[in-house]
Amino acid sequence: MAKVFIKTFGCVQNEADSERIKAYYWERGDKLVDDWKEADTVVINSCVIRESAENRVYGLINKITNYKLRITNYKPKIILTGCLVPIVKKKIEGVDEMLPIKNISFDIEPLRNNKKAALIPISSGCDNYCSYCIVPYSRGRERSRPMAEILTEVDKTLEKGFKEVILIGQNVNSYQPSFPKLLEMVALKKLKKISFISSNPWDFSDELIDVISKYKNINRLIHLPFQSGDDEILKKMNRKYTQKDYLGLVKRIRSQISDVRFSTDIIVGFPGEGETAFQNTVSVCKKVIFDIAYINKYSPRQGTVSAK
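^ thats the sequence. predicted structure below, dont judge the formating
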C-alpha cells in the first residue's frame, strides 16, 4: 500500500479532476495523506492560467526535490498532471512522470472533497481563443460529455445524499447539444440547488434565461465574466461582444429573473489599456453592481496572441 499526496492548483475543473485521481488511488488500496513529506507518490495537479499559478507549481516541485536531496530515505515519485503538461516544452527536473489530463477518465467515480456540493464536469477545453487565454492550448478543443452520462452522475450524487451540484466547464453554456436542455433536465431532479460555472456572455441565450427563470432550484447568482468594459480592449481580447451587448444581456436577464445577482471576472492592465479604457471598465461595475468581482492583473501567457 502506497501513501499518496495530491496537491491541486487552479480552478474547479482541476478540483474535479483531482477528485477522480484520489478515487483511482483509493480504489486500488493506497492511503491518501495530507503531508507530502509522508508520501511515496506526490501528484501535482497544475494550473497555468496566470504566471503566479505556474510559479507556485514549480515552487512546490523544487521544494520537494530539494527535500529529497537532504533526506536520505525520502524518495517519492513525483507525478505532474493538469494544464502544465500539454504546454511544457522540455522535461521538468524532479518530475518522474507526466499524466495528461485526457487520461483522467470520467469512468472513475470521484472521491468528493466538498461534502455539500458535488462538482459535475460537463465539458472540458475551449474553442473561443480569447487572445490572453492559454486554456485552448492547455486543455485542448472543447469536448462535451454525453448528456446521459452527466445525468447518471447527478443521480449518483443524489443517492449519496448530495442536495447541491455545480455544473462545470471552461464555457458551460456552449455545451453541446444544448446547455439549456441539460440544465432543465438537472433542475427536474430533486436537488435543492444547481449552479454552473463558467459562462461566456455571447453564448448566454434567451432559452437559457427562460430555463433559469422557470426553476427556483437554479442558483440566482450567475457568474458572467466581462473582463473589460472597453470595446477596443474587448476586440483585442477577442471577446465577441461590446460593452453595450454585455449591459443589454444583464438587462434581459434581470427583466426575467428579478432576484438575480451577478459575479464576474475582470482583467486590468491588458496591453493597450489606458485610463479611458480602465474607466469604461469601472463604469460597467457601477452599472451592474456585482456581488463578487474577481479582479486580476493581466498575465502574459506564452503562445497566446496577446503575449506576442
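The chain has two domains: 3-103, 117-307.
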